[in-house]
Design goal:
With 362 residues, the protein is α/β, with parallel strands linked by helices. The chain is 38% helix and 21% strand. The protein is built from 14 helices and 14 strands. Helix 12 links the parallel strand 12 and strand 13. The longest helix has 16 residues.
């Protein structure tokens, strides 16, 4: 299958550059290049691309407005190209809220200093988004369509929220001392949907590892905190793991669990060059397996690859329950699938049920 791509950017040079990179992949074909969001909105139904790449700032119609219009008119996976600045982070998060499913830095050097590696990563991202089983991204704009898709599969919430043994999934906060959440592609919106469901005073501390650049995580933590009833912050070295709060791993670093005066705390460590993910779910999970003795709930959300599987395996040797997001509500069913196929998941749950189940357990 060839993934058909529409490129949307006001720079003719950038359109040519991305076209050359993508067309060099024999599984990708660029079918159109638009100079602004209005052109993309006008042509999307006619051209019917599998994936759209979208700039943020453009004349006539900006990328965020275009994303919102496309998701209403002709829902399609959209990859944003963004600058690694504070303003770029906020705009990209707005685009994800509007319906975009993923983002990459606009400068190839910010993806990888090795240009060949950067090109491979871009093509891999496009292929993965293009080969998704559903073209309906998991956003607020199309949540009703997702719910309809679940109903069309003739699966009730009770049927889906089951363990391998067929038991109904339940959560009682008194049974757990820590919740770990891992996420990648599609994670920002998924995390918003979960964390905004939690009531004030939610008694179980939460550690969140979301694959995201260093310039993005401060803005993302602030956004989550402003939307939620619990306190959410970006982790700082030495932060205590406390109830009624969630800590987000900073981008570009590794977050590990440690002990300080007998209390659980996080340490922020410099990431090594050979580590693919910064932050890495596996790194955090492995540190929790070493240093935490209470009962843990792991929630593995949408994302590419298998980061988190090895760390989850270590945690399963201890007192840990594992939930994986189900395929139909994932933007990319990679990390949850890795956990499920390894036999580590106790339950496979649709996104809308995760926050609800957690809140009902208070």
């Amino acid at each position: 299958m060839t993934v058909r791509v529409m490129i949307v950017d006001d720079s003719a040079f950038f359109r040519r550059r991305i076209t050359e990179i993508l067309n060099a992949d024999d599984q990708i074909e660029v079918i159109g290049a638009m100079a602004n969001g209005a052109e993309a909105v006008d042509k999307v139904s006619q051209m019917n691309p599998d994936v759209i790449t979208m700039d943020v700032e453009m004349p006539i119609m900006d990328g965020i407005t275009a994303v919102r219009a496309i998701m209403e008119k002709h829902p399609t996976p959209i990859l944003m190209f963004s600058s690694l600045t504070t303003d770029g982070a906020k705009a990209t998060l707005d685009a994800l809220d509007a319906g975009a499913v993923d983002f990459l830095p606009k400068r190839m050097e910010d993806i990888s200093m090795n240009r060949d590696v950067a090109k491979r990563q871009l093509c891999e991202r496009i292929r993965t988004l293009g080969l998704r089983r559903t073209k309906i991204p998991n956003t607020g704009h199309v949540s009703n369509q997702l719910d309809k898709g679940i109903a069309d599969d003739k699966k009730s919430a009770t049927d889906i929220r089951t363990t391998g043994s067929g038991k109904h999934v339940r959560f009682d906060c008194k049974d757990y001392q820590l919740i770990l959440i891992g996420a990648s592609t599609g994670g920002p919106v998924a995390l918003q949907k979960i964390l905004t469901k939690l009531p004030e005073g939610f008694p179980v501390p939460i550690l969140i590892i979301q694959h995201m650049p260093a310039s993005f995580t401060p803005a993302f933590a602030q956004r989550l905190n402003s939307m939620s009833k619990i306190k959410i912050k970006q982790a700082e070295d030495g932060d205590l793991v406390s109830t009624e709060s969630a800590i987000l791993a900073p981008g570009g670093c590794q977050m590990v669990l440690d002990k300080k005066s007998g209390k659980a705390c996080v340490r922020i460590q410099e990431a090594s060059e050979d580590q693919t993910y910064k932050p890495s779910i596996d790194v955090t999970f492995a540190s929790v397996a070493r240093n935490f003795t209470g009962k843990i709930l792991v929630i593995m959300l949408t994302g590419m690859g298998a980061d988190g599987r090895d760390g989850t395996r270590l945690l399963k040797e201890k007192n840990t329950t594992v939930w994986a997001q189900d395929e139909i509500t994932c933007v990319v069913y990679g990390m949850p699938m890795a956990v499920v196929e390894a036999g580590l998941a106790d339950a496979v749950i649709p996104l809308a049920e995760i926050g609800k189940t957690l809140s009902q357990g208070v």
